[in-house]
Amino acid sequence: MNLPENKVALVTGGGSGLGKAIALKLQSDGMTVAISDVDSTVGSATAKESGLFFIEQNVADETRWTEVVAELEARFGALNILVNNAGIVGTVDSDSPEHCSLENWRKVFAVNVEGVFLGCRATIPAMRRAGGGAIVNISSTAALLALPQHVAYSASKAAVRHLTKSVAQHCAEEGLNITCNSVHPGNVMTSMWKDTIAVDRARTHGISVAEAIEEALASSPLNGATTPEDIAAAVSFLVSDDARRITGTKMIVDGGVINCSTYHSRKHMEARRILLKMQGRP
């Protein structure tokens, strides 16, 4: 693969989980990588152990974006790549259209949508000055499916998808040599997924968290879990020179769940049968 060496990348939410895996992959590709995170303790520790540059940042803070871009350009001379990874699920409780509070809706949108918008807006001028670049926005398969138990999260990730297309077209129309694409992870076994989505699925279906995780794994046609490293590989490709003709598109990394929607493994069917029996349904 034609890797973009000597490029400077910023990965938001890079202290842990997907962001950390993405940052380490881009670093291994030969890039200078900065990570930002609202948790300075976690972010600093990751940067120290991996040789990354850390900046404390709340992505929903408009002023902070201006400061971050200026600091990176001053330190490294340019900013070529942005990975808008920072995001939150919101409350661990069922967050249906009937019961989602306006407070939680706004909290989720502030980080997941406004944070991504502000990141794109702040870095496009820097990439213009650098002669081009690449933006990857981390969305979710929740943007493509109904997820009524987490309506704020799924709606926010759908917004990220459509923001991505608008940014891509703007950059193309302006002749900026900047691509913008979205990556849509499925059930990635991060602590955030286990502590929120899996917990809510377990509560909704009256099963244990371990059983909820097992059912999620069994639903994948390719078997097993999608890992943070799988997502990082997708991002690595989209910011590489090999992807220079790809913009405005979505890359789904979910083991085939979305596009093989009629697939049900024997293990998954047995799990569903047991679940329905527990619920007293035929």
UniProtKB/TrEMBL annotation:
One Pfam family it belongs to: adh_short_C2
Molecular function per GO: oxidoreductase activity
UniProt entry keywords in alphabetical sequence: Oxidoreductase
Gene3D superfamilies on file: NAD(P)-binding Rossmann-like Domain (3.40.50.720)
Entry EC no(s): 1.1.1.51
PANTHER family recorded: DEHYDROGENASES, SHORT CHAIN (PTHR24321), OXIDOREDUCTASE UCPA (PTHR24321:SF15)
Family: Belongs to the short-chain dehydrogenases/reductases (SDR) family.
Protein name: 3(Or 17)beta-hydroxysteroid dehydrogenase
Source organism phylogeny: Bacteria, Pseudomonadati, Pseudomonadota, Alphaproteobacteria, Hyphomicrobiales
